[in-house]
Fold:
Amino acid sequence: MTESTNRNEFIKVAYYYYKNEMTQDQIAKKMSMSRQRVNRILKKCLETGIVKITIEEYENQNVELETQLENILGLNEVIITDAQDNEIFNLLGIAASSYLKRVIKDNDIVGFSRGRALSCLVNNLVSVDKKNLTVTQLVGGLNAQESHTNSDDIVRHSAEILNAKPYFMYAPIIVENKQLRDSMLNESFFSQVYNIMKKCTVAVAGIGDMSESSFVQRNFMSTEEYSVLRTRNAVGEVCTHYFDINGNIIESGMNDRVFAIDFNSYKKIPLRIGIAGGSEKISAITGAVRGSLINVLITDHKTAKTLLSMNT
Structure:
């Protein structure tokens, strides 16, 4: 077969497949060749430039960087927004809201932690045509001064927008001692909320770093607890579970005093979305990924580039 004849055959196969929308089996039968040969020809058409696939606006998006990070970090999906430092929380919230709208399904139970990025998510959330949705807190609240970033406020607003049934903890995120926490958990109201938490199908969590941790800022940690975390090189937390750069969970004793989903139940949630950006979050994001605390990451472009360079 001459090169010209060979090329004509390739062009015809490509035309049938891409223009006439015929299947490879249909082409094979029509042209009296094996399906394997059709498949090889189509691959050759792409390699030689007979067929060129163009993705509109590809250069203006972050698809390539997102895909690289997904492969390198082993994440289900990475969403990258082009956020500047002064608008990072709002743009992360917009991206997270759009992602949540895309993935949420009928009968989902969505758990929220707390933080500025999650507050911005809810501010940009839109209604979805889904049935029997439930939203719940994954952690307790802090104080009135931070009401807009508290998990109870986030759950209340998201329930209104999504037409979902809300479950509130009505408890502080941290109490004085384990005995008080345990006695409260024995109450039927709190045990009911905990059971809902454990049934979550989607977790939406901020990724805290040691520099901005609410527990560090507000002195909610004891000196001994803080010393344990520092000695064992804690870099961040998700739902009050602190970890090092390799994702190893650090037990400081503080979790005996907090109202939050337990670690084993959290790890069983199928979709665990982490929202974080900024240079100060690099180590915390890295630890959260390595420890599989998240399997979806929503971050900004600058942070994504740094994560890529650190892991290649």
Q: What stands out?
A: The first helix runs from residue 3 to 19. Residues 164 and 243 are 32 Å apart (CA to CA). The mean pLDDT is 87.
